[in-house]
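## Example pair
The file below holds two records. Each record gives the amino-acid sequence first, followed by its structure token line.
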Amino acid sequence: MENNDQLLSAPGFRPSIDAIQEFKILTGVFPAEYGRNSGSQVIVTTRAGTNALHGSVFEFLRNQVTDAKNYFTPPNAAIPSFKQNQFGATLGGPIIRNKTFFFGSYEGTRSTQQITAVTTVPTPQMVAGDFSGIPTVVSDPLTGQAFPGNKIPANRLDPIGQALAGFYPTPTFATAAGKAPSNNYVFNQPQVDKLNLGSLRIDHTFSTKDTVNGSYNDFEDSQLTQNNTVCGSRVIP
């Protein structure tokens, strides 16, 4: 059975680290059983059960208390919230001693965080129709002539446009005189990740020369990444 994501050129299922027995990297010319991609191949062998019952349990925690503040977070702002739990367990042992063995693993990830993002919003002066602080000339669409002082008269402002412009937040960074606003607003957008990864392997030995094994793997990854941009933004990892 093939375990490759053709779109990403990556494995479709990645076993939990505690379920890996060994791995090796192939380079150069591969045997026909590996084929397709050039460069290198990563071969992963999962763990099998033995006559002794054995297992493991792990938990890995990260949060905003132990992380540094993002460079683009304003000095007086709190560190964006972040909490990640990565946990799991493995168990392996005999079904029929010296003949049939099992090995199962589970790994879960629960991550909730706020990602610092930078975007561009109009200044309060621009929302009010005053574009005198930017180099771009604002022209009257009716006459094609520039508005005096680069300011749109109050009686020419459309009430619907003003209402829509009112949804823009106030910039968190000042815009230099004579410059158009750029990356002047920092905000946090939520990102939620819920992953469940499980596998079960069964091995049976017929003789010292003949063995067979089969595995069942389940991978579920639910992610929520919101794009709260208003004029286009870039996410700061």
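Second record, same layout:
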Amino acid sequence: MATKILATIGPSSLNEDIIKKLSLNGVHLFRINLSHTKLNDVSKVIDKINSWTDVPICLDSEGAQVRNQDMESESVHFSKDSKVKICHEQVVGDSKNISFTPNTVSKQLKVNDVIRIDFNTLALKVIEDKGDYLLANVEVPGSVGSNKAADINREIQLDAVTHKDKEAFKIGLEKGITNFSLSFTHSAEDVKEIRAIIGNDSNLISKIESIRGVLNLKEILPLVDQILIDRGDLSREVPIERIPFVQRLIISYAKSRDVPVYVATNLLESMIKTSSPTRAEANDVASTLLMGANGLVLAAETAIGKYPVESVEMVNSLVEQYN
């Protein structure tokens, strides 16, 4: 099986010239990340890509993930020990107000809960329930923008497939999309829920990015076509020094069950801003291939980076050395 390259579409790549160049350079699948694509834009993005290339599209769900909502700028600073309102209704966030999606999240928060945003760039601790909102103290100061991933220091209830995911998948099915990805796959029940929407004939990639997903691999693998290890979100729950070894374990286990594995996050992170990777990144990609990964996923590198085409060319060069 040839190593597959998945390229995430974003502002840097959503134009005809770049899409055609990425297609010619061996991209096997174009990924639309629903966490960063508004529902009203899904149909238009699909149509644009389909008009420029025959390379298939994969719709990647939001899934069971908490994110802060729109902020007044892409760098809102929160000072140490300042007080912030966590609003139950959606607001445009600033240094004194913030809201989260899904909108069921804030209602589940309690006093002493800690919310870490954008890999602990900012941490808020709930200190009082005011009824209409929660009051939080800034434990870790920092600056964050819109739509950053957040995690909470205890388990809360989140739907495996959001309303937005369901609507986007319906649009995709109507437009002939046959590849779908389920973020934060925790269990077989999560897989069954999405299968009920996309059907058994669609290609389903389950993203393993939580401890629960890792522990439930045995029941998940028989129900999916491929899995994807998202090392970024997994590192919220697994110490970073253990990630390479957990990655190796997952790949080995999945391959023993004949389920292909894709690997994502920070593969060529420096190429967001520079035209070549670091030696450590090249070694990381090579090691991932040697572990037996069947595919590599470029995210920010092709979605918002300055060098989307060069990033794909570099992955291809590394794959050629491996082969």
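Notes on the second record: The first strand starts at residue 4 and ends at 8. The mean pLDDT is 94.
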